Amino acid sequence: MTGEDRVVTIRPSVETGDSLGAGSRAAAEGEASAEAATAPHAGRRAARGRPSPGRAVAVLVLVAVAAVVPLFGPAAVLDGTGEAEAPGTQGITFLRTVLVAALCVQLGEVFLRRVARRVPGAPMASAPRAWGWWAAGAGFVAALGLASVVASGNLVPQQPSDLDVGGLYASRDGRLALLEVNAFVVAALCARTRRPDSAVLPLAAVVVAEALRAHPPTEDDALVGSGLTLVHLTCAALWAGGLLYALRILWRWRTSAPEAAVAVLGLYARVAAVLFAAITATGIASTLRRMPPDTVVDQLTATAYGRTMLAKLLLVAVVAILALLARRRLRRYSGGDRIAACAPARAEVCVLGAVVAVSALLTAVPLPIRW
C-alpha cells in the first residue's frame, strides 16, 4: 500500500473524529442552555418548596391577639371612664373570641368551597383539608363556657354547685346559650359527613342566636337591632373565614394549579367587596342606634364602648387598605407572580383576627350611655 493510499485511508477517520467532536460540543452546549433555561424555574420551585416563616409569624400574631385583647383590653378601655367592669369580663371576652373565630373558620370554608367549584379546572380533590371539625369543637367548648356563665346568674362559676343547669331552660339567654352549644355539636357532626357544607344550617342557628342575644326584648326596636347584627355577623364571618380558606387554597395549589388558585381568589375578591359594603352599612347603623349622632364624638373617647368601637374602626380601615392593595397587585401581576403578589392578603387575615377579638370585647363592655 502506497503513502497516498495511507493518507486517503486516514482522512475519513480524522473527518469522522471532527464531526463527533462537533456533535459532542453541540450536545454539551444544548445541555448547558437547557440547564440555564430551567434554572429560574427550578429556583422558583425550590423557593416555593421551602417553608415560609410568614405563616409561623401569622399564627403567633393571631395567638398573641387572642390572648392580649381579652386580658388587657377591658382594663384599657374602662380606664378613666367611671364605668364598672362586669365580673368575668376577661374570660367572657376570650370565650366569645373563640366562638366567633370558630364560626368564621367553618362558615368561611363552606362559602369558599362553593366559590372554588365555579372555577373551571379547579382540582377540588386536592383542596386543603377542612378545619371545620376542629373549629366546631372549639366553638362548642366556648359556647359551653358561656352557657355556664349564664347558668350561674351571669357570674363566673367558682364550683359546680354554682351552676343551675335547669334554669337555662327558664330564661331567654339560657335557651339561646343552649341553642349555640347544640348547634356547634351538629356542625361538628356535619363536618364529618360526606356533605360538610350541610354545616351551614347549624352555623346559621349560631348567628341567629348571637343576634337575638345581643338585643334583648327590653331594648327599643330589638328586632331591628337583631336584624342588623344578623347581617353584620354573617357578612363578617364569610369575609374573614373565606379569606383564610382562599389563602390556604392559594398555598396548596401554588404549583399544581396556580391559575385556578388565583381565579378562586379573584372570585372571592368580588364577593368580598359586597360583603364589606354590607358590613360598613350595618356597622354604622348599629353604632348610631347605640350612640345618637350628637353624642358619638364624645362617647368615642369617654366610654368603654366608644373606645372599643374606635379601635375596631381603625382596624377595619387597615383591613380595607390591605384588601385594596392585594386586589390592585393581583390585577397588575400575571402568571405565577400573582401568587407572590398576594402578600397583603396574608396581613389582612392577621388584622381580621384582631378585629374578631375587639368585636368580642365590644360585647363584654358596658353599653354606651344614651344622653
What would you note in describing this structure?
With 371 residues, the chain is mainly α. Helices cover 75% and strands 0% of the residues. It is built from 12 helices and no strands. Helix 7 packs antiparallel against helix 12. The longest helix has 47 residues, at 3-49. The chain is globular, with a radius of gyration of 30 Å. It starts with a helix and ends in a 9-residue tail after the last helix.
Explain briefly what this protein structure is.
The chain is mostly helical and 371 residues long.
Tags for this model:
371 residues, mainly alpha, globular, disordered N terminus
User: How many helices in DSSP terms?
Assistant: 12
The backbone outline, from C-alpha atoms, is globular
Proportion in helices: over 70%
User: Major β-sheet, in short?
Assistant: none
The low-confidence parts are: 1-51
Total beta strands:
0
Q: Structural class of the helix and strand makeup? A: mainly alpha
Mean pLDDT: 80
The whole-angstrom Rg is 30 Å
| Helix/strand order | HHHHHHHHHHHH
How do the strands and helices of this protein lay out in sequence?
Blueprint: H1 3-49, H2 53-78, H3 89-116, H4 132-151, H5 172-191, H6 200-214, H7 222-252, H8 258-290, H9 296-302, H10 304-332, H11 337-340, H12 343-362
Helix pairs in contact: 2-3, 2-10, 2-12, 3-4, 3-6, 3-7, 3-12, 4-5, 5-6, 6-7, 7-8, 7-12, 8-10, 9-10, 10-12
